[in-house]
Amino acid sequence: MKTTKSTAYAKGVWAEKFAKFYLHLKGHRIHKSRFKTVVGEIDLITETNDCIIFVEVKMRDTHEQAAYAVTPQQQKRLRNTALLYLQQHPTHKKVRFDVLLVNRHQFPIHLKNVLWSE
Known about the structure:
Helix content is 37%, strand content 34%. The chain has three helices and five strands, in the order H-E-E-E-H-H-E-E.
């Protein structure tokens, strides 16, 4: 069954709402949803007592498919978008990148402090 663009968008919105709820339960304060710039978008920007966290939410049929959906191009856009955010909102807190892998049939997998090299 082929997924239409509007169906994919609706699934993405659902996954991000679910991620906000899930991370809130884990003690995160949500700063921004869908932070958009000319270089890219970050799904969620959250904060804990000691970190600012840039979260990429990926929803696919399996966790493995979701993990592979964070492509090198997207990783670069995420880094560049995070840099713009930090220029606008300086902080002394640690910064990290997380990925939340979501599907409708299993508990999500929260990958913390995923760092990508160029």
